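Write out the 3D structure for:
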Amino acid sequence: MDIRTEMESLATADGLMPAYVCEPVGKGPHPAVIVVMEAFGLNAHIKDVTERVAREGYVAIAPDLFYRFGSPIVPYEDVPRAIGYIQRFDWSALMAEMGVVIHHLKGRPEVRGDRIAVTGFCVGGTIAFLTACRHASSIKVAVSFYGGGIGADTPSAPINLAEHLQCPILCFFGETDKMIPMDQVRRIDETLKRLKKTGEVKVFKGAGHGFFCNDRSSFEPTAAQSAWDTTRSWLSKYLN
């Protein structure tokens, strides 16, 4: 499917936030998918994923959540720097900014405002999960890739907000992910089931953190393809 791409600027309480927008060429309106970046910024890989989503028939938008830090692109090998930016996040402001993205999509004539999904990778997976909880009435399906801390045993862990979920949620993890203990993954699965939420937690054997990113040494093609196929299926089922 042919697509067109552009950079846009969204007004937030803290300034203008760049966003990479991709949309199908042709008659709309289309459902929309928010693509939330990893801890390395709005880089070429996230833009590529956003384009892949658009080619499936969705208006896709990837906000630059590092805009308040000067929109840096962090090399994959510089994990300490990436973590440093994440530690500076104001999570309340982040959720407000995700609300800005949702509002922006609803105001676009080529978007079906009642059919908006969110997906994300790494810290973006955590933000996707939180967005589905905090903006529950606006999100129709959520897909989280190896979101860290979602199932942590802390009062602020996103899993504690799971009761607010109104949409189906799909969570992918890697079995050998050293950043996300399997007890946290099990807590997510158990909580979703206890709350009778429509959800699935899928763990890929032998895969580690970042298994979906073909620009990282952690790339695991079999797991990545399976996760992509499942994501496409879920988006089609719940957005169309």
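The domain at 3-239 is CATH 3.40.50.1820 (Rossmann fold).
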